[in-house]
Write a sequence for this structure.
């Protein structure tokens, strides 16, 4: 469903992600845990390109969201001038073609040798790959719901307008259809009486539940949760987690960044532990929580549990 | 003649009234048209300066930045001098029009900065939430960011309009027949031979305009604030 391939992300000199790859399958509920600053939110935000990875590719349902990363495509590397000269140099040194090929590619990847201008063939190959696979990001995002730590309800719109904005503006539904659907969703979370309130009048828990159903109003195929309970007062955490659990039981594919370990264990089908910009360990909740292999995971769990 | 007698003379002489009304008309005309130019120009410049950096936007961005820097960095009176005696130094070109253009251009720079600040003051999370739903950046701007920015911008724009109206008084240096000019003419005349009364009356006129404007702005503000009553 979502495929993250070798992504790197730096903000200026700060390297936040240092080569992260993972596949998220349909129906999976992947929970990402890790210390703050480990890159887990950045990784989640790369999945719908709110953050553009510096290197690497993100694929959603076999469509490419990012530009092509030539380092991930051997056949593209082979068209580059750098490869060609390196290859002929290695062959001249008396290496067989197979060996030369592997060595040249390995060296280019290891030393980051590809330049901006690598010849016409190379450029064309990248262009055609992008033409074939790349999808409009706005289209891709329609299928990916996102829930933020700070809710981000639209302050200038009432609750029902918040839910209706995207489906109506994107012409996926008529106003009447969108309103009926929005009311259904509000009833589901028991907030139908708040339909005409502005977000500033709601509690944090109410805001977050509305933010979740706002994402659901688009009928997404996958939901991304970015620390959905971190900004909530403790007594409101439960109502939000319950709603997420409900969605989980309905089989929604989810990626959740969270600090709620109990929740992670209960809801997740797979847990990723991130530290210093890489996935340090991953496994089922019971593997990771009861029997962590990585020393950093052990230390982290000891600190938070 | 004491102050009140002079005041009586001023209000009982129809010629003085006519002059004052004409001066008021000129002041209002310059202010209103300059404000319109300023708002339109300011909005355009603000849009360019908040646009994402790209190769196509590099030149427009530079021009806008240059414009704002120059206009905000030099005195209004000097800008008016240059407009009147250099750029529009054409025989028969109406000075009122020159003044409108000069004040419009001046106001535009301040309005642009106000609008830019207003848009930047909207939480980035609002944009992110909108984009994450699949809405384009244009829709995000028009449906979510600008409606919220306007609320933050209105008080500052009001401030700028008030400053503009009062600043137009310097056009009297160029012989334009505005409220301030009228006051000096009346005061310098033989009948009055005192500047105090006509100046005070002109000041009252300015005060009246500004008061009215403030009132309308607060009305607009109140309506726009409907969504954040707590």
């Amino acid at each position: 469903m979502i495929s993250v391939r070798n992504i790197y992300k730096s903000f200026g000199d700060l390297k936040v992600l240092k080569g992260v790859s993972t596949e998220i399958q349909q129906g999976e509920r992947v929970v990402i845990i890790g210390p703050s600053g480990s890159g887990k939110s950045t990784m989640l935000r790369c999945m719908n390109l709110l953050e553009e990875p510096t290197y690497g590719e993100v694929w959603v349902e076999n469509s490419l969201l990012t530009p092509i990363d030539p380092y991930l495509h051997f056949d593209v590397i082979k068209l580059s001038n750098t490869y060609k000269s390196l290859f002929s140099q290695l062959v001249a040194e008396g290496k067989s073609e197979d060996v030369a090929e592997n060595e040249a590619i390995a060296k280019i990847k290891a030393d980051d040798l590809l330049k901006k201008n690598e010849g016409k063939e190379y450029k064309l190959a990248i262009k055609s790959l992008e033409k074939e696979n790349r999808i409009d990001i706005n289209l891709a995002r329609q299928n990916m719901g996102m829930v933020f730590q700070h809710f981000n309800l639209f302050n200038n719109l009432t609750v029902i307008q918040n839910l209706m904005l995207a489906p109506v503006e994107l012409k996926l539904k008529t106003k009447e259809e969108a309103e009926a659907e929005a009311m259904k969703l509000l009833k589901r979370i028991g907030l139908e009486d708040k339909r005409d309130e502005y977000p500033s009048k709601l509690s944090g828990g109410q805001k977050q539940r509305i933010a979740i159903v706002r994402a659901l109003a688009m009928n997404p195929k996958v939901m991304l949760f970015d620390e959905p309970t971190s900004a909530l007062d403790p007594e409101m955490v439960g109502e939000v987690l319950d709603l997420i659990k409900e969605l989980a039981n309905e089989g929604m594919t989810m990626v959740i960044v969270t600090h709620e370990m109990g929740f992670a264990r209960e809801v997740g089908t797979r847990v990723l532990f991130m530290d210093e910009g890489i996935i340090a360990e991953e496994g089922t909740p019971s593997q990771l929580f009861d029997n962590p292999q990585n020393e950093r995971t052990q230390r982290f769990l000891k600190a938070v549990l | 003649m004491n102050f009140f007698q002079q005041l009586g003379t001023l209000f009982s002489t129809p010629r003085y009234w006519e002059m004052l009304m004409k001066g008021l008309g000129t002041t209002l005309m310059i202010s209103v048209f300059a404000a319109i130019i300023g708002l339109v120009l300011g909005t355009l410049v603000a849009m360019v300066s908040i646009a994402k950096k790209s190769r196509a936007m590099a030149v427009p961005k530079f021009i806008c930045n240059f414009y704002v820097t120059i206009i905000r960095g030099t005195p209004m009176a000097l800008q008016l001098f240059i407009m009147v005696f250099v750029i529009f130094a054409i025989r028969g070109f109406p000075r009122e029009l020159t003044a409108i253009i000069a004040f419009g251009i001046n106001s535009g720079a301040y309005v642009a900065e106000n609008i830019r600040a207003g848009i930047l003051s909207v939480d980035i999370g609002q944009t992110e939430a909108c984009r994450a739903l699949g809405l384009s950046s244009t829709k995000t701007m028009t449906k979510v960011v600008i409606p919220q920015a306007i609320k933050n911008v209105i008080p500052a724009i009001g401030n700028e309009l008030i400053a503009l109206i009062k600043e137009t008084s310097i056009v009297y240096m160029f012989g334009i027949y505005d409220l301030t000019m009228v006051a000096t003419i009346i005061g310098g005349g033989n009948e009055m031979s005192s500047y105090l009364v006509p100046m005070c009356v002109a000041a009252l006129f300015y005060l009246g305009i500004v008061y009215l404007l403030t009132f309308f702005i607060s009305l607009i503000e109140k309506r726009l604030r409907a969504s954040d009553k707590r």
In short: Chain B has a mean pLDDT of 90. Chain B has one domain: 3-229. Residues 14-50 of chain B form the longest helix (37 residues). The interface with chain A takes residues 123, 125-126, 128-136, 139, 143-144, 147-148, 151, 226-230 of chain B (CB under 8 Å).
